[in-house]
Design a protein that fits this description.
Elements lengths: L13 H13 L9 H9 L23 H4 L3
Length: 74
């Protein structure tokens, strides 16, 4: 439990802590586990890879150019 709930990861919910504890006690050894299908699923859902240092680009809404002829007069 001390490896799962550290001072840096102390804000885990009870459900997430229980899931991590279950995996660490019952799950396969890391040398027998293939993470590739899970990584592909993660990236296919639009989540970012660990090596990205910034978030997604901001989406700017399209402006209504209805008044652009009037704005050109100013």
């Amino acid at each position: 439990m001390n490896n799962i709930n550290t001072e840096y990861r102390s804000k885990l919910t009870t459900t997430n802590a229980a899931n991590l504890l279950f995996i660490s006690t019952v799950g396969p050894p890391t040398n027998q586990w293939n993470p590739l299908p899970y990584v592909k699923t993660w990236l296919a859902k639009g989540r970012r890879a660990a090596h990205f240092t910034s978030g997604m680009a901001r989406q700017h809404p399209e402006e209504d150019n209805y008044f652009s002829p009037v704005w050109n007069l100013f």
